[in-house]
Amino acid sequence: MLKPFYMAKPKSLINVFWMSMTSLYLILVCILVYLWVGEELKKTQTQIDNLRETYINTQQEIIKTQVKHSVAYIRHQKSLAEKKVKQEVKFRTNEAYNTALYISIGKTKIFKNF
Fold first, then answer.
1. What is the spatial distance between Cα 41 and Cα 103, in angstroms, rounded to a whole number?
2. Domain range list for the chain
3. Rounded Cα distance, 43 and 36, in Å
4. Cα(97)–Cα(82) distance, rounded to whole angstroms?
5. 3-state SS class at 1
6. Residue-wise pLDDT tens digits, 22-59
7. How far apart, in whole angstroms, are the C-alpha atoms of residue 48 and residue 54?
8. pLDDT at res. 114
9. Is the pLDDT of residue 17 over 70?
10. I want to staple 3 with a disulfide (CB 3.0 to 4.6 A). Which of 7, 31, 89, 112 is the partner?
11. In this structure, what DSSP letter does residue 8 have?
12. CA atoms in the 13 A half-sphere facing the CB of 74
């Protein structure tokens, strides 16, 4: 039959001492592990933040470089287009002048024949 707790066999003083010391050590170890893990998490978070910042800065520099190259390419293409348009306008102007000159010379010959 089960005895009530107040009728249980009294524990020895040594057992009580060892149980309390073991409990104290376990609590102390748990606190130390908790503090250690907290510090490691802080260090890890700092490293993650540094890596994130470095990555973002690197990507920003890459984008800036690509934009500069794109702007330079667009300016180059614009200058080529302007040169081409200038040559085309010059060619068309000379062609119009020669046509007008031909028409003018042709009309004077026609008028001289009358």
1. 91
2. 17-113
3. 11
4. 22
5. coil
6. 999 999 999 999 999 999 999 999 999 999 999 999 99
7. 10
8. 45
9. yes
10. 7
11. S
12. 6
Interatomic CA distance for residues 26 and 19, integer angstroms: 10
C-alpha distances in angstroms, 15 versus 11, 20, 30? 7, 8, 22
Distance separating alpha carbons of residues 82 and 91, to the nearest angstrom: 14
Which tokens sit at 17?
């001492």
| 45, amino acid identity | Q
CA distance 102 to 107: 9
| Opening angle at CA 8, ends 7 and 9, nearest 5 | 120
pLDDT tens track for 57-114: 999 999 999 999 999 999 999 999 999 999 999 999 988 888 888 888 876 655 554 4
